[in-house]
Amino acid sequence: MTLDWWRNPCQPLDPIARGKAQSRQDQLTKPRGALGQLEELAITLASQQGRERPCIDRPWFAVFAGDHGVVEEGVSAYPQAVTGEMLRNFVRGGAAISVLAKTLGATLELVDLGTALPLEPLPGVLHLHVGAGTANFAREPAMTAAQCLIALQAGRASVERALASGADLYVGGEMGIGNTTTASALACALLGLPATALAGPGTGLDDQGVTHKIQVIEHALALHRDGCDSPQETLRRLGGFEVAALTGAYLGCAQLGLPALVDGFICSVAALCAVRLNPACREWLLFSHRSAEPGHVAVLEALEARPLLDLGLRLGEGSGAAIALPLLRLACELHDGMATFAEAAVSDRPV
Ligand SMILES: Cc1cc2ncn([C@H]3O[C@H](COP(=O)(O)O)[C@@H](O)[C@H]3O)c2cc1C
Ligand SMILES: O=C(O)c1cccnc1
């Protein structure tokens, strides 16, 4: 594979499956359009999965973890040690995403890209050792070019494993103390917006904390402004290991033909990076929810995304996408199981 594999073409959606699914929706026993966003969801999934009747039988969850050097600026309400501690919690089954994956019958893959504090090998976790967290981007680029490439590739490799196991939907998640600062800085640079438009409390900063976070991000944006001359370089300078891995995963999904359900603010910023690196990947992305993190609105707008849920979630880990997954399943069940007007002998014409 070439170093800039992400520029390779994405899979086209299947127009025949889309047409058949659209016409099936129009024949089901309900006023046309009455199932709202669930109708479009079923039709989109049909065009992505290349079958008139899509299904979500084998969802694949992958949580990418990594630490952030910018945490030394005091931008998170929680200590950096939590990233590694939560990895242990994922393994033991005590984290929100562990419970959700188990309840939904999903495979949960855990990828540790590099924590600041040393971590013992954990059963079932893929430890990739990209670095002991990223460098502090308020002082220098977060990643070397090699680290950024390895992280992007780690995301793509996760999608390859998902497909090899027969997955029909990909859900990415993240764990990394400080990553709302990273995501905000990245989104500011990609969208040309000031930090005030995107930075929020993350895990729970107070107003004073958010003001400080904004100052740190503005300082970093000024430091890297001239260097951020491409999406790839912006990701390298202001990103994080897990954000780059998610970016690579979304690109991999589009290139290999697996629909991806995007979680909250952090994942949406990774999706924005993916779309800037290869715009054609957009049509493989489904958006699950609007996070309580205030910057999410601007990122969703830039992606022209209309998420399914707005529950005030601000957790990450892929949890919001997992919570939206039953809606995707219900959209598929309705699409598959409802009778047509002809089958049910119901008059199909409004008077
Ligand atoms: C116990 C705990 C579990 C989490 N699971 C996800 N996050 C979320 O919060 C972090 C980002 O917020 P900030 O930028 O404010 O540090 C990320 O790790 C994200 O996944 C968690 C945070 C904590 C504290
Ligand atoms: O929406 C998110 O992804 C999010 C929000 C706050 C903290 N961690 C993640």
TrEMBL record:
Gene Ontology MF term list: nicotinate-nucleotide-dimethylbenzimidazole phosphoribosyltransferase activity
Assigned EC number: 2.4.2.21
One GO biological process term: cobalamin biosynthetic process
Key words, A-Z: Cobalamin biosynthesis, Glycosyltransferase, Transferase
InterPro entries to which the protein is assigned, alphabetical: Nict_dMeBzImd_PRibTrfase, Nict_dMeBzImd_PRibTrfase_bact, Nict_dMeBzImd_PRibTrfase_N, Nict_dMeBzImd_PRibTrfase_sf
Reactions mediated catalytically: 5,6-dimethylbenzimidazole + nicotinate beta-D-ribonucleotide = alpha-ribazole 5'-phosphate + nicotinate + H(+)
Cited Gene3D superfamilies: 1.10.1610.10, 3.40.50.10210
Catalytic residues, chain numbering: E317
Pfam families the record matches: DBI_PRT
Pathway the protein acts in: Nucleoside biosynthesis; alpha-ribazole biosynthesis; alpha-ribazole from 5,6-dimethylbenzimidazole: step 1/2
Origin superkingdom: Bacteria
The protein's role, per its UniProt record: Catalyzes the synthesis of alpha-ribazole-5'-phosphate from nicotinate mononucleotide (NAMN) and 5,6-dimethylbenzimidazole (DMB).
Family from the record: Belongs to the CobT family.
Name of this protein: Nicotinate-nucleotide--dimethylbenzimidazole phosphoribosyltransferase
Species in which this protein is naturally found: Metapseudomonas resinovorans NBRC 106553
